[in-house]
Design a protein that fits this description.
This protein is of the alpha/beta class and about 325 residues long. Helix content is about 40%, strand content about 20%. Helix 1 runs antiparallel to helix 10. The relative contact order is 0.19. Keywords: Signal. Belongs to the UPF0065 (bug) family. It comes from Agathobaculum faecis.
Amino acid sequence: MKLRKIIAMLTATAMAAAALTGCGGSKEYPSQNISVICPYSAGGTTDLCVRGMTESIPDGVLPSGVNITVNNVTGGAGLVGANQFRNSSSDGYTLGIVNCDLVLSKVNGNTDISYDEFTPLACLMKQPNLILVSADAPYDTFEEFVEYAKAHPGEVKVGNTGEGTLTKLSAQSFEQALGLEFTYVNYDGDTNSITGVVAGEVDMTCCSAAPAIGQLTAGTIKALAITDNERTEMFPDVPAMGELYDELKDIRILTWVYLAIKNDAPEEVVTYLQDAFAQASATEEFEETLAAFSIMPAEFEGTDGALQFMQEQYEFYDSLIN
């Protein structure tokens, strides 16, 4: 086991024990099962990441007989589950998800739920999108694609999953910054958008690695860049668009998901859960779960750091959309 994981587990174990005995030394929390409201269907990437995290908590961290279960509450592009989470008790027995979709829904005026109504507990995933084109496209680099788009304004068709979605914002971010002009074609989901690239219906799409990995492995599509300013360990040969153009150096379009609790939950409950999930995230089991979906492990930056990141993402999305 890597030294980082050993240190994380030892530190989390000590802090969790302190939190558990926090109120006068009584071991009162948790005394019953904890539920996580997942606003997406069972078997999806977010659902499987949640289950991977909760099932990776080492033996002995939770009291005997206490489990963490997942309650899939779907609908409204995640807002049905988000509303149920918002209206749940703050006693520490109901957790939920705060992610890029919730922030985008707020920016788009589809909800008044704000990320800062919740306290982040763990980061399940945080990674940039891939800028994808057909394997036989007439450009092999992001710079060549940009030059092609400049020479053909309005002719480059970009597959996306709808107005205000992360896939469209990914393309719009560098379209606006570099003075390009795309024509957007809507698809029902990233997989269909990728299929559109393979079929030649559109020239480019942007999405996370999970839905693209099959076609990338098959060699039917290629990744020109990622929507970030630094390369990733998962795709070290794929440049970050921010390293190629100064105009893009401050742009980070990321798919991110946090486990969270309502922000008026007891402090000792927050500490206990953060440390339990820190131990889970340090396990080989959880890393293997993420790797199966081409997701990179993400470091949890602490409550303040996570909220600051969410604020920055909100402000950036707002600047693009509004």
